[in-house]
Every structure is written in structure tokens, then in C-alpha cells.
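G., the chain you wanted modeled:
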Amino acid sequence: MGAVRIPFFQVDAFTRKPFAGNPAAVCLLPKDGLAERLLQQIAAENNLSETAFLLRQGSQGRTLRYQLRWFTPTTEVDLCGHATLASAHVLFTQVDPQAETVEFLTRSGLLRVQRQGEQLMMDFPAQPIQPWPEAMERVSAALGVVPLELYQGGMGLAVLASARQVQQLQPNLAEVKALAGSGLIVTASAEDIEELDFVSRVFAPQLGIPEDPVTGSAHCLLIPYWAERLGKVELRARQVSARGGELFCRALGSRVEIAGYAVLVIAGEVLLDQFLKASSNG
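Predicted structure as C-alpha cells:
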């Protein structure tokens, strides 16, 4: 069997500098794609919070169209913001520098990403939330602090009293993993921090991600919440994980816009024949 290789890129998303933000792997698939089992094996090998797989569907003018799938080391997910941003960055810088828009066909529908100066702007569906009072005791035990408010929208959303409280949090991840949903978002107003509206952290041990450095999809819940709470359409957010990341947000009713920067840090190839041999050998 000859060498089978696919282009591989690692991009730090939601940051202007390398080694910050949230790293995502981006793989450009051959025209016939790959088996789902193999996609999961590659994602596990990468061991990043997300690996994005892109399959070209065509283009029209300066608009590219790709199928996009996201995998954590353990499972496929319905939506991932930072790996979408990373994917668009790869396409705009490494595949077609003349392109202005990319349309991604995903499990969450059609997602568009556009150039916006040096930033890339993503158009995502807003995620509704509902009060989650029945989980207050369990969430409080998991966090070691009682939230001011608690909601559920696929992920839990716990509102704390201050940004400092969010930054200093040391949750019990085993108890977070036992909660319903795909993870827990913790957030607070950033009224005391210049140029910021709110901060957050995201814990998703249910998906094999103890703490996600910067989570675009979580802002599908956060943006509508804080837009209503603060009476603002445009919001600036920071995810205060160890790596940290900044997001420029806009509330548009049933949709949200999430813009950010991205930096390419690694480029290479996946030697696919090695995976194929390993798969055939069980």
C-alpha cells in the first residue's frame, strides 16, 4: 500500500497570538471522504478538544462550500465554534485566499463564516435556555458555590456573582460529569473589567473535555442571555480559562454572530496508510 496522506493543520482559535485560545485540528478529506470509525480514531490520536474534518462540496464565485464534522477524542458533536473558526481560517489562508465566505454543511444546519477585516465572523443559531431549578443542589455541589441563576439548554448555564468567582472556580469534574447535558457553562458579568461585558468558563467531561479553553458553541446560549440582561446587541466576551480567548458577539434574535481571530501554528500531513493498516489489523 502506498502512502495515503491528508493535509493537517492545527489552529489556535479566538486569539491573536499562538499558544493561546483554543487549539483545533483541521483535516482536509479526500473526495470520497473517510469511514466514521477512522475519523474518530484520528480525533483520538490528535487528543485535542476538537478535530474538524472538511469535505469539499464546490464553490461559487468567492463562496466556498464544505461539509464539516466535529469530533472530540471520544465522540462526534453537533456544533463546535472554535473548530469552525479554525476551519474557515485554514480555507481562507491555505486553500483559497481569494474567497470571502465559506458555507459549512453540518449537523446543525448551514453555517456561514465571512471575512470581517482581520477577524472571521460566524453566523450560528441561538440556543434557547430554560430555568433548571431541580439541578441547583447538584450544580452547587459540583461547583462549590451556589449560582445566582441556573439554566439548561443542552448545556447547563450557571450564573455566578462575579468574574473573579468564575476565574477562581475549581469544580469537582466527576460531579459535573454526572449532570444532565453535554457540559456546564459558568458565567458572570464583567462590569468591573474594561471593554468586557461578560466572562465564562466551560467544563465538558461528558465529552471527554475536562475544561474547554474557548467555546464558541457555548456563546449560542451566552449571547442571548447577556444581550437581554444587559440590554445590548453587541457584546465583548472573554473565556477565562488558563489559555484564554476573546469573542466579539452580536445578538440577532434566532441567530448570533461570533467573531474572532485565529492563528495557524502547525501544518503537516496525516499518514493515513498507518491508520488504515491499524484498522485492518483490528
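The first strand starts at residue 5 and ends at 13.

Shout if anything looks off.
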